[in-house]
Design goal:
The chain has helices at residues 2-18, 25-32, 52-56, 86-89, 106-121, 130-136, 151-156, 204-214; strands spanning 38-39, 61-62, 84-85, 146-147, 199-201, 217-224, 230-232, 234-235, 242-256, 259-265, 277-281, 291-293. The chain has 298 residues and is of the alpha+beta class. Strand 9 (242-256) and strand 10 (259-265) form a beta hairpin.
């Protein structure tokens, strides 16, 4: 009996040290009964066994004080479609889903991925290195998070190299030193935003027009615990604590089941969500309260 009590007490101490488990079977079962979007099974959840504190290390994006562009609905002039997906308009230019790993580098992935797609749309097919931003951007904080607009300061000057020049290796939470030459021996070249081209859009119609004309944008939003177990459909927050800010890439929009939504590309690998993508209800979780992009310097 004493041995049993000791084991129970030891288990409680271990759980206390590890922290609260973020995803549980009971939480998943409860959500399945209350939301219209599809919930992942417990066995298939990539966050099974992760603690809340471990999840929070992935979510380090903050909204800084950079002012919004003075846009309003009257600035939107196009008659835009009800449904739009950049993968249909530019099928070769929406690059594959990335995996940030155990590093709060979503801010670097969102900005670099949006700019990579825009370079491709302009005729230069390059994948810009998120590692360059994580290791070298003085405005942000590597694996400890960053801003939703400040990465574009770095992408304007000095710019970032290609992913093949400086591959992403911070999935283990460690940040290597900034490099001044390519690890694979290729020519060291920086890819940049054109000076003065960064736009910050805060109105749905102007955001849609920007994406329709020029390609994906990056944005940030508030992540709650139920977002971790999203699989498909149009996500909206229903239950669970706030975990942190997260940056992603937005590639389109649409309407489904009476809900207007944004189509987004995440950086949690293809094993999360709808092969790495997700739909989220417009206006939910501060999604797209402002979105950022720039024009590639060709």
């Amino acid at each position: 009996m004493k041995d049993l009590i000791f084991v129970v007490l030891l288990s409680c101490v271990v759980l206390q040290l590890r922290g609260e488990i973020a995803v549980t079977n009971s939480f998943i079962d409860r959500l399945k009964k209350t939301v219209s979007w599809e919930v992942v099974s417990y066995e298939d959840s990539i966050f099974r066994g992760w603690t809340v504190d471990e999840i929070k290390t992935l979510l380090g994006t903050e909204k800084e004080s950079m002012l919004l562009s003075p846009d309003d609905e009257s600035e939107a002039s196009l008659n835009l479609p009800e449904n739009f997906d950049s993968r249909d308009k530019w099928p070769k230019c929406v690059h594959p889903i990335r995996n940030q790993g155990h590093c709060g580098s979503c801010w670097a992935h969102g900005a670099s991925e949006a700019l990579s797609d825009r370079f491709c749309i302009k005729g230069t097919d390059v994948i810009i290195s998120p590692q360059d931003l994580v290791s070298c951007d003085p405005h942000d904080h590597g694996c400890n998070g960053g801003g939703d607009t400040t990465p574009y300061l770095y992408l304007t000057a000095p710019g970032a190299v290609s992913d093949s020049c400086f591959p992403y290796v911070s999935g283990n939470g460690k940040v290597p030193a900034c490099v001044s030459k390519c690890v694979n021996g290729e020519a060291y070249k920086k890819y940049k935003c054109s000076i003065g081209s960064v736009v910050v859009k805060g109105v749905t119609k102007t955001q849609q027009e920007e994406i329709y004309n020029n390609g994906p944008m990056s944005t940030s939003f508030q992540v709650y615990k139920d977002f971790l177990i999203y699989k498909s459909g149009v996500y909206y927050h229903k239950e669970g604590e706030f975990l942190g800010g997260h940056a992603i890439k937005v590639i389109g929009w649409g309407v489904e089941g009476g809900l207007n939504y944004w189509i987004c590309s995440n950086s949690w690998d293809v094993t999360w969500g709808d092969k790495g993508f997700f739909k989220i209800k417009m206006g939910d979780c501060t999604i797209m309260d402002r979105a950022v992009a720039c024009t590639p310097s060709i």
